[in-house]
Design a protein that fits this description.
Helix content: 25-40%
Number of helices: 10
Order of helices and strands: EEHEEEHHHEHEEEHHEHEHEEHEE
Largest sheet: 6 strands, antiparallel
Number of strands: 15
């Protein structure tokens, strides 16, 4: 692990400073990250119930001029945040949520996390965490944390699905909202060409790591029945998916090309979910309609 100089201090010196100031255990660790190389983090342990990893290298990259006092205060705020406490008995009803990641791109990270593979994706589990005022992040549930609390992956999956708050909306509404049109100023359906299949956006209420909403196949079934058609599902990012009717107007190879093009030119690497195209039918459930290049 490279010990870079930050705030005129090495990572090791920052670790020692934080441990002394906050009266906690601190050690340098490598943090696996979705679709990216590991970075340096600080493993913080205050007591048996409060432990988390502070993404030290990432925090410094975001704020290069940060002082050691600012970094220490950020960690102090995380120590005070109740959501950091991995008390899964309290999380059963309201906190644990699912997050979908690309399996091949996250092999190393998945080794440390309870997960299940679905097609070329994996479901992991996390807890929304307020890392600063107005800033929400997530804490991934590790094998160690789940085992300590006596939770199996199957239990986490059921809990996470119950806690999910999926949102399905026509793309036209989402586009109109994003462009801040007042109601009545413009009919959002004008964004969709005549004869063009209606598209839907599926995400969660936070619009963060919302692609996991595709796990709610009851919603997919209802939409399929409403449209009288099977569905194509395009993973636009880890935060949402786009859904269109599986009819003759849009063939699978065209949609697969769209997914690959968007990932290659618009979506940041860390935000990409997959270059595959998925399909849903009430009979077969969720399947792969086409597979793109690896992330």
């Amino acid at each position: 692990m490279v010990l870079k100089k930050i705030c005129n201090m090495s990572y090791a010196e920052i670790k020692d400073h934080v441990a002394a100031e906050l009266h906690c255990e601190a050690k340098l660790v490598e943090v696996p990250r979705s679709n990216r190389e590991p970075e340096v983090g600080l493993s913080i342990k205050k007591d048996e119930k409060i432990s988390f990893i502070f993404h030290l290298e990432e925090a410094i990259k975001k704020t290069p001029a940060a002082t050691i006092e600012q970094l220490t205060e950020d960690i102090r705020c995380m120590l005070k945040t109740e959501a950091i406490k991995l008390d899964l008995n309290n999380l059963r009803c309201e906190r644990v949520v699912p997050h979908l990641v690309n399996t091949a791109a996250n092999k190393e990270m998945l080794k440390a996390l309870p997960h299940r593979n679905i097609l070329d994706l994996s479901v992991i589990y996390e807890i929304p965490v307020q890392v600063a005022e107005g800033v929400i992040g997530t804490a991934k549930i590790t094998n160690q944390a789940a085992e300590a609390q006596g939770f199996t992956e199957e239990q986490l999956y059921e809990i996470a699905l119950q806690n999910m708050d999926p949102k399905l909306r026509p793309l036209s509404e989402v586009m109109a909202e994003a462009m801040e049109f007042e109601q009545g100023d413009l009919d959002p359906t004008e964004f969709i060409r005549d004869g063009f299949p209606k598209m839907y956006v599926l995400t969660n209420a936070r619009k963060f790591h919302g692609a996991a909403a595709v796990l709610r196949q009851d919603m997919l079934r209802d939409l399929s029945e409403k449209l009288g058609s099977d569905l194509y599902i395009m993973p636009s990012s880890i935060h949402e998916v786009l859904i269109v009717p599986a009819d003759k107007e849009l063939e699978a190879h065209m949609l697969l090309a769209m997914v690959s093009d968007v990932n290659g030119s618009v979506v940041e690497k860390k935000e990409q979910l997959s270059n595959s195209l998925y399909s849903y039918s009430p009979d077969k459930g969720l399947t792969l309609a086409g597979i793109g290049y690896n992330l």
